[in-house]
Amino acid sequence: MKVIKGVNIFVKKDDKFLAVKRAKQDKIFGGMWGLPGGQIEKGESVFQAAKRELKEETNLDLISLEENFCLKGRLDIPSYPPILLFVYKGKVSSGIPSPNDSDVEKIKWIKAVPFLNSLKKKNYPSKEIKNFTKFLISEGLLNLSDCKF
Question: Is the pTM of this model over 0.85?
């Protein structure tokens, strides 16, 4: 079975991080907050895919991407090929993010708890929510007392 490879970009600013709200017409992630990113196209490097997706979704330019991914996950969604996601920490150009793609409804710098609540409401895989929660704790954006598993 074909596996779709995707890249997400984690950009931290103070006590928040950059998130996009997927447009309702998105069959899989519609209405859900997520990190900017998407599918790595054939022949693209991770950096090229991250740069393209970030620009398409937020109208921001990617300045740098850490060499090693900080988080990896697999999404198994019924009636859809498995998705292997790699999350990389990135730095972006200054500017005000604005939706630059019909797949994105809103963009904002979001705190950890509302972001995680959005994932839970949309029945995002609990294993991946736990992994991302641990990552947010390691980034200093979430306290253990905020976590309800």
Answer: yes
